[in-house]
Amino acid sequence: MIKIDEYVGVSGLVVAELTEEVDEATGKVTEKYGKVIELAGVQTLGGELSESSEAHYYDNMSAVVIDSEGSDNYNLVVSVPENKTRALIEGTTYDETTGALIGTPKKKKYFALGFVGLKASGEQEYNWVYKGKFTGGGKTLNTKTDGTDATNMEYTFNSIHTSTKYEKAGNKPCKYLSVTDDGKADLSTFFTKVTTPDELQPAA
Questions:
Q1: Is residue 125 a contact partner of residue 117, using CB atoms and an 8 Å limit?
Q2: Cα 179–181–186 angle (5° rounding)?
Q3: Domain boundaries along the sequence of the chain
Q4: Which of 70, 74, 79, 194 could lock onto 50 through a cystine, CB 3.0 to 4.6 A?
Q5: Long-range contact set of residues 163-169: C-beta below 8 Å, sequence gap at least 24
Q6: Rounded to two decimals, what is the model's pTM?
Q7: pLDDT for the residue numbered 51
Q8: How high is the pLDDT of residue 48?
Q9: DSSP H or E segment with residue 47
C-alpha cells in the first residue's frame, strides 16, 4: 500500500561557500566547499523546478519528445540575517571592525544550500542543494504600531548542476541530495560539512 505523507515544516537553513579551481592543462574543474554556517531562521522554502518537454513532428506525426532541464529556483522567506552573512550571500562587503554592511558593487559567489524538511509522519528529510547563487535581500520597514506586524527578508537561490561528476550519480553531475532519516543512511555528519552523494554512507 502506498504511503501518504505531507510536508509540515522546515528548519536548519545553512550555507557553505563553493569555490572552483580549473586545471589549465586538462580543463578539469575541482569544486571545494567551505565551512557550513547558519543562514537565518527559515519561515518558507519553496522550490520551482525548470524543465520542459516538446514533441517534434515528422511525416505529420509526433515522432520524438525533446526534454530540456534548466536551473531550479528555491524561494526563501527568512528572518533578518546577520550583516556578515548578508554580505557573504549578497556579494557585498562586511567591515569586521565596525560590524557594518557596506553596499559595494556585488560580486556573487556560488554556495551550497542545506535544510531539513519535516513530514507529517514525523520523518525528517535532509537536503543539500549543491551549486547556486543568491538574489534578493530587499527589505521593507514599516512604522511601529500597537499591533504585531513585522517584516522579514526574501531571497531566491538559483541552482544549477555541479561541475563535479559523482560515481553514485552514474558519473554525472547533480543538483541536490535528499535523504530521509529512515535509518538507511548515516546522517550524523550530514550538515557538519557538505555531504556529497559519494560521501553518503549506509547506517552502521
A1: yes
A2: 80
A3: 7-80+109-180
A4: 70
A5: 163/20, 163/29, 163/31, 163/131, 164/29, 164/30, 164/31, 164/196, 166/196, 166/197, 166/198, 167/197, 167/198, 168/197, 168/198, 168/200, 169/197
A6: 0.87
A7: 67
A8: 73
A9: strand 42-48
